[in-house]
Structures are given as structure tokens and as C-alpha cells.
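Lab meeting notes turned into a lecture example. A postdoc, R.K., suggested we walk through two folding results consecutively so the class can see how the record format repeats. The first protein's sequence and C-alpha cells come next.
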Amino acid sequence: MADVQKVTLGVVGWDGVAAGHFAPVVMPDSPNGLEGLQNDVETGKASVLAVMADGERIGSVLVRILSGGDGLHFVIECANADLPGFDLVETCMPALEGWAKQLGCVAVDVPTHRAGLVFKMKRRNYQVVQTVLRKAIS
């Protein structure tokens, strides 16, 4: 990991920094796209968490809470950091999982198309519960 002494997470509004972090990792062919994510944050359907390393913002995480059949799910929809060597999964997941638990969520969901992230999350006891394939037909 990068030489970071203290990492904190905090809720912030949508801004250019978040847009810059999320643009490269928005799910391909997402029906919402970056503009939809911004709208969801601005209307209270999702939140942006700033990832601060030693007081400097180095990443952003977009989360939302959705109701599932078994209770509330804390969904990490987008996350990215721009500090070389900084691992968001290893550094931030324990805090995000704890936050989800405090909010009364029964699960943390991480939708992704990235095989490397699937591998990392499986090492943290996450399971693949859904695979979605899409073909544009218009």
C-alpha cells in the first residue's frame, strides 16, 4: 500500500472530483451513466463518500441502500482512487462493512464487471450472487 498514515471516509456532495473518480469505472453500458449517478446523489438516492489519505482526497465511493427480500443492502456502486499503490478494498472495506452494519443493513453488495475485483472480494468472503449480461438491440 502507498505510504499513508491515516485514511478516513466522509459523506460529501457530488463534485468534479467524484465525477473524475467515477468516470473510468462506471459499469459499461450502465443505463444510468455518470449523469444518472450524479442525479441519484443530488436527489438523495445515493451518497458519495470521500476517501481521505492524510487529509488529502484521493478517492471516492458511491453507495446507496436498497431494500432486498431479506432486508436492507448497502450497495457500493462505484469506487476509485488515484493514489498509486493504494488498495481501496483492503483499506476501506472493513469501515464500509461496519458502516453498513450500523445502518441496519444485512448485506453489502458490490456489482462489478472487473474480474480482478471479484477475485479480491472473494478473498474477503464475498460470493458471486448474480451475473448480468446485456446486448444492445437498438
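The second example is placed directly after the first for contrast:
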Amino acid sequence: MIIEVDDVRQFLLDRSPGDNFLLDDVEFDNNTILSGLRWVSDLYNTQAPFVDTYTMDNFPYRAEAIMGAAAFCLRAMAMNMARNEAQAQTQGGTQLRDKAKAGIYLQLASEVSSEMKGRLAAIKIAKNVEACYRIV
């Protein structure tokens, strides 16, 4: 099953500039989303139990792939915001912090990633038990 970039954009509500009126653009580029999809299959393949392996192109767990790619994007943006945050103050004393959302993005990434990892662990455990009973 191939998961499309648009599937991840739908989950993140990052479909068009209209979804991001402050940016007037999509927030995540296609390469970041595709890297997120690769990260999910790599994560699955490197965590025990090692019952099967997949690539981004044949990863069969659609919801988990979309969630994982979204978590990857959110974490990447949190790192970018933290790295590029600059604080300024107007003459009137108003604080300007254009990249002050790193914590929010990191929290969202953590929540989505945690759910995705829990779901993948349950899938792997079920497959491992199923394989064990087939052998007996």
C-alpha cells in the first residue's frame, strides 16, 4: 500500500496555503513528508520482534505510517523553530517571537509518535504470537 504525501497533509491539515493563513503556504515540503514515511518503515524494521520488514513503498499499516510521518514533520519543525528562534522588542515594549512554538510542536510530535509506536508494538506482538502458534 502506498501512502501519499497528501494523506499526511490531510492528517496535519497542511493541504494548501489556505490552511496556514499566517504562512500563506504549506508548512511541510514534500521531501520532509517523504522522509517521515521512510522513517516509519525504518523504525518498524529496527524494533524487535523482527517478524517482517518493509519499505516505504510496501508498508501495510496506513494509519501508523501517516501518524509517524506527521510526528516526524512536527519534530523536524520543532527543531527548526528552536534553532532559529530570535527574540526582539518593539520600541513600545511588545515582545516579538516569531518562532516561539517549538515546545508546542515538540509536544504534538511526542503525542502522535507515542500513539504510533504503541500501535506498531501491538501489531508486532500480535504477529509474533501468531507465528509462534503456527510453528507449534
